[in-house]
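[step 3/7] fold_predict: job queued, chain A
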Amino acid sequence: MQEKIYFYYTNDLHSNFEQWPKVATFMKEARRKRENANESYWLVDIGDHVDRVHPISEALKGKGNVSLLNELGYDLVTIGNNEGITFSHDDLFQLYDEADFQVVCANLQSLYNQLPKWLYPSVEIKTIHGVRIGVIGLTAPFNDYYELLGWHVADQYEVLKNVMQELNDKTDVVVLLSHLGISEDQEIARRFPDIDAIIGGHTHHLLRTGEEVNQAILTAAGKHCYYVGEVILTWDHEQHKLIHKEAYTTDISGFPNDIETKIRLESLQAEADIILNEKVITLAESIEINWYKHSLLMQLLTDKIKQVTDADCAMFNTGLLLEGFPKGEITKADIHRVCPHPINPCIVELTGAELIEVVRATLTKEFMEFPLKGFGFRGKVLGRMVFSGVEIETGVHQNGQEYVVKVLMNHEPVDIQRVYRVVTADSFTFGRLLPEVAKSEKKSYILPEFIRDFLADTLKEHFGA
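[step 4/7] structure written:
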């Protein structure tokens, strides 16, 4: 006898709730098919379901996301970095208290020697006809953040060695839920021949029909749930082994919205609106923002973060503010709308020479107009960099391009050999936008405060009527 085993999955929704009613339509239909055929199936999520860019996730601290997963009957979930490092320790500790599914993450550890009751390193599930399946979860090791929040993410390879030893003797099939990214998934498949399927995420890669590496089939469904994934494993009970592995992703853009889910999202939005309607200040005059020009609010915000962090200088880009504020009452919702990014300040150490190079890079048209996607940035373009604690003297070439003449600190030229503590948006500590910042050997992240928390303080301090 042969038995087909089905896993249906989502990854990296990032609270793109406009897509969730279509996901619901897909999942409900998949469940109906499998139940009518009396076949074994599980619904799983690979992390970054939560993103505090959305008011529902911001106001309800991710618990609205958990309720949505509950209502679709999800069985297994692992956590992504957006669940792991954008909430305080207590908020993450309580995030899945009401979950009807199992949360699987083998490499998340507590620095306080207390793990939440909902967390499992692995789980064992069984098909209708008795095939034993071990499911492991792993998340990306952003320990510069995690350890400031009271957590530690252990090395995935060491963790896998231990968990696989436990599972090998008591399971027939092993499935990994991996929020590590495509390169790590491929390496795991090479190192661990007993893993049969790796359902991935984090790097937002889309594998339409899966990828075979060593013995494993790898799959992932991009980002924002424009695709939903499916893994089909075929077990031969006479040979006592898997004889076929398949993986597909389905473009659900043409699927109808599930009405029940749409109504539920409207209810969650109304709940979030009540929470975020709390007044912060009343503005006597409106505040305008231009991404390519210096603005008073952006300067005051940059000054505020420099002051609070006691850095030598600060630099923040105007694109962090998506729009200005109208005259009148300003609520938490307004501040979240203007600055929705899950971005923290970060202090990096740069030599004077590196600081000058960073200043030069930020003055270019290419930098200001760069449409950054990811690294926490949820805006349109980076915009002009605003500085505090450092004076920039510039000139303009005939072609209109601004260039650096002098970089001064305390009215003296920056010492090219001295090391300065520079606070900026943590998005620049990743990737290649500002290589000197990303390569800095010492980074100190300011957690759990987001940029918008400092924005609220700046507004209250300088603009309250």
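[step 5/7] annotate
The mean pLDDT is 96.
The chain has two domains: 2-272, 279-462.
exit 0
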